[in-house]
Design goal:
This protein is an alpha+beta fold and 388 residues long. It has 2 domains: 7-173 and 341-377, Gcn5-related N-acetyltransferase (GNAT) (Aminopeptidase, 3-Layer(aba) Sandwich); 181-321, Gcn5-related N-acetyltransferase (GNAT) (Aminopeptidase, 3-Layer(aba) Sandwich). The chain is built from 11 helices and 17 strands. The strands form 3 sheets. An 11-stranded mixed beta sheet has the order 4-7-8-10-17-11-16-15-14-13-12, with helices on both faces. Strands 1-5-6-9 form a 4-stranded antiparallel beta sheet, with helices on one face. It has a two-stranded antiparallel ribbon with strand order 2-3. It is globular, with a radius of gyration of 22 Å.
Length: 388
């Protein structure tokens, strides 16, 4: 251990850590974890459903640090991985190069919420000294077990700074987030857009719903029946099978999640009469809505934009949420009022040669991301001089 006053446990299931202990280490308001993906119940549903398991290449190795009196002071959601799937921060090139040079990149340690490109706390603790101890413990675990690397993805800016101070490498990437500047309605938001973009947005919303007589319902809490989940899973499987071959989450995950935290789940369904034809899955955070999955059984022009972006804005305005995070990638989100936002990941590489090569790569990548974001800002749809 880097700090001899602390002890560390490596746990093979989140179930081995009491929910109250885990959640107490995460930022929260009124006893509710701010970021729902870091809630013990979310991680437990991933493991109990078998979605995140040794069989799927996500073997839990969660860290729990305690002081000399046995009081937990830090934790990390950590997995031993035999591949790089489901991470949204791509290191396949690093793995290939290292293995061509005779190294063994896998297994690696991945600090993350599986299958979730959402920024949030990864080094769970109440102070920076304990967070640094968590970082050092992950390094020690990798070194003692001859593991090539440790990766923490979608960390906060403050956590990236802490990891950099510990010698970890920092990567940047871009997502697209919508910001609620105290809007009272969608029309209020439209007033910040240029005239051309206002017209396009109104036309897209009209064509998505009115042309086919579709309606939209927001479903949460007790609305989330098993029949509703059956329908959503059909949507999810359709999109998943087309985008990445096999959906990462199984049907049981959604039932377990619904049983545990239905009040933090939001489904938005588009209906043709009584028949749902498309839907989205989002999670409700303390200060933002996190859009995650979408699917449809019928191709309707602009319905994807309506459910994934415009309805999310409607919900955020209605519930006074400051931000909507619309998931990974997608420059098309710019024209819908979503602005570029920087995401961060940090990486500890054990082999000096590989570390030096990766360090050069990520330095160039950060500069490229900065240039790209500067260019993207020019294509936002807002009227000149308006905040966004």
């Amino acid at each position: 251990m880097p700090d001899e006053t602390l002890s560390a446990d490596v746990l093979s299931s989140i179930a081995e850590i009491p929910a109250a202990v885990w959640n107490a280490l995460a930022p929260a308001h009124d006893g509710v974890v701010d970021n729902p993906f870091l809630d013990h119940r979310f991680l437990l549903a991933l493991e109990q459903s078998g979605s995140a398991s040794n069989r799927t290449g996500w073997q839990p190795q969660h860290l729990l640090l305690s002081d000399s009196g046995g009081t937990p002071v830090g934790a990390m959601p950590l997995y031993l991985k035999s591949h790089s799937q489901g991470e949204y921060v791509f290191d396949h090139g690093w793995a290939d190069a290292f293995q061509r040079a005779g190294g063994e990149y896998y297994p690696k340690l991945q600090c993350a919420v599986p299958f979730t490109p959402v920024t949030g706390p990864r080094f769970l603790a109440r102070d920076d000294a304990s967070r640094t101890a968590v970082i050092r413990t992950a390094e020690t675990l990798a070194t003692r077990n001859n593991i090539s690397s440790v990766h923490a993805t979608f960390v906060s800016e403050a956590e990236a700074d802490l990891a950099r101070a510990s010698g970890w490498l920092v990567r940047h990437d871009t997502q697209y987030h919508w910001h609620n500047d105290g809007f009272s309605s969608f029309e209020d938001f439209l007033g910040t857009l240029s005239s051309r973009h206002r017209k396009v947005t109104r036309r897209e919303r009209r064509d998505a719903l009115e042309a086919d007589g579709l309606t939209v319902k927001w479903l949460t809490g007790s609305d989330l029946t098993e029949a509703v989940w059956d329908q959503f899973f059909e949507f999810y499987q359709d999109t998943g099978s087309r985008k990445w071959g096999r959906p990462y989450l199984n049907r049981r995950f959604f039932s377990l999640l619904s049983e545990a935290m239905a009040d933090r789940v939001l489904l938005m369904f588009a209906y043709d009469g009584d028949e749902p034809i498309a839907g989205t899955f989002s999670m409700i955070g303390h200060d933002r809505l996190y859009g995650r999955y979408w699917g449809a059984t019928r191709n309707v022009p602009f319905l994807h934009f309506e459910l994934c972006y415009y309805q999310a804005i409607d919900y955020a305005i209605a519930h006074k949420l400051p931000v909507v995070e619309a998931g990974a990638q997608g420059e098309h989100k710019l024209a819908r009022g979503y602005a570029p936002a920087t995401t961060r990941s940090v990486h500890w590489i054990g082999h000096p040669g590989l570390r030096d090569a990766v360090a050069r790569f990520v330095a160039q990548e950060r500069a490229s991301v900065a240039r790209e974001q500067e260019q993207l800002e020019r294509y936002t749809p807002f009227r000149h001089g308006d905040p966004h």
